[in-house]
Amino acid sequence: MAKVTPPAGKSGALPPNDDIGEAKRLELYRLQVLLREAEQRAFDLFLQNQIKGTSHLSLGQEAIAAGCAAAMQPGDLSFCTYRGHAHTLARGVPVEKVLGELMGRDNGLMRGKGGSMHLTSVEHGVMGSYAIIGAHIPIACGAAWRAQYKGASDVSVCFFGDGTTNIGAFHEGINYAAIHKLPVVFVCENNLYMEYTPIADVIPVKYPAADRASAYGLERILIDGNDADVVYRTMLKAFAKARAGEGPSLIECLTYRHSGHSRADPAKYRPEGELEKWKQRDPIKIYRERLKSFDFPDETMAAIDAEIKKIIDDATTACQAAPTTSTDILFTDVYADGGWAWRN
Fold it and tell me: Hey, how many other C-beta atoms are within 10 angstroms of the C-beta on 256?
């Protein structure tokens, strides 16, 4: 199989700081730490049997969610996969709402009825997490078409994994968006494995999204998905292109999940040493080094770390104290009118 290694080099040859700025860099660091600690807490709660069922963590992939969210504007729309906790949190949904949903508590984002794989918050521009592979790509295209038709300025961002690039909806959606120059950005989070199978074993090209972009008249964009600055800069360009009416972008972000596909997966299929090699390019480690290179004091990062820890602890306490979801709401909000009765 074709082997994909972590992007070469470390954060040594650094770009100037002034194109991003201190405030945005601190935002990117804070976001990544928040996503890491929130998902780590979700994992710990699962081991304590306080979260039932399974869920899919994106530990190790935080730079993508953080870099994309930091580049988005209010009103932009996110369409996520079942591995959507980080993208939901990155758009500003409170940790308590996400952990509460995972724990099946009444204070959850959807009062505990949606669970891990269906996080949705229209208020924050999170238009759903989708458990069916590739199902959200046509929906993101529809949202983008609506913006184009109405002359709105929002951009739809559709996140998916490497395995989705072998699904028909991927090719149909990219084709449709390219033909109509829709304001949508497609982001492939290539963590090398489609569940348990290496993506390299089932594609005729090395990079499943970037190497197929030219078939739809799109630029080949392959980036280091573990470097939040790279993601942020790339997304800014893609958003500007979309808002200018110049059509979609297809961006492939190379990354690596630190855990298995889901809670039930010990990831024994990975070659020995592969995880350790990728952990050398842990996105948070990279960003701490980046901030130090720009003379951010250790105390600044320590203060952010402490702030995030308190947020996570307070959210956990609130969720543990919240009541479990009542069966009284089982048949509410099934349809848009708030009820469950079928309308013909």
Answer: 24
The tens digit of pLDDT for each residue in 153-180 reads 999 999 999 999 999 999 999 999 999 9
Q: Are 73 and 152 in contact (CB under 8 A)?
A: no
Q: Give the 3-state secondary structure of residue 127.
A: strand
For the chain, the average pLDDT equals: 93
Q: How confident is the model at residue 1 (pLDDT cuts 50, 70, 90)?
A: very low
Structure tokens at 306: 């402490």
Q: Which domain holds residue 301?
A: 22-323
In this structure, the strands spanning 193-194 and 197-198 are antiparallel
Residue with tokens 């990831």: 267
Whether 5 maps to a domain, the answer reads: no
Q: CB under 8 Å to 26, separation ≥6 — which residues?
A: 291, 296, 300, 304
Long-range Cβ contacts of 275-280 (<8 Å, 24+ apart): 277/5, 277/6, 278/6, 278/60, 279/60, 280/6
Tens digits of per-residue pLDDT, 306-327?
999 999 999 999 999 999 999 9
Six-digit token string for 139? 């929906």
Between CA 319 and CA 325 the distance in angstroms is 12
Task: Tell whether 161 is covered by a domain.
Answer: yes
Q: Which of 167, 100, 90, 81 is nearest to 125 (CA)?
A: 90
Task: Inform me whether the pLDDT recorded for 189 exceeds 90.
Answer: yes
Q: How far is CA 118 from CA 14, 62, 84, in A?
A: 38, 19, 8
Residues with Cβ within 8 Å of residue 221, at least 6 apart in sequence: 210, 213, 234, 238, 249, 250, 251, 252
Is 80 exceeded by the pLDDT of residue 129?
A: yes
What single letter denotes the amino acid at residue 224? D
Residue 122 lies inside a defined structural domain of this protein: yes
Number of domains in the chain: 1
Instruction: State yes or no: pLDDT of 297 exceeds 50.
Output: yes
Domain with 194 in it: what CATH number?
3.40.50.970
Only one residue has tokens 């591995």, namely 83
Alpha carbon distance 342, 103 (integer Å): 29
Could you tell me the pLDDT band of residue 5, with boundaries at 50, 70 and 90? Answer: low
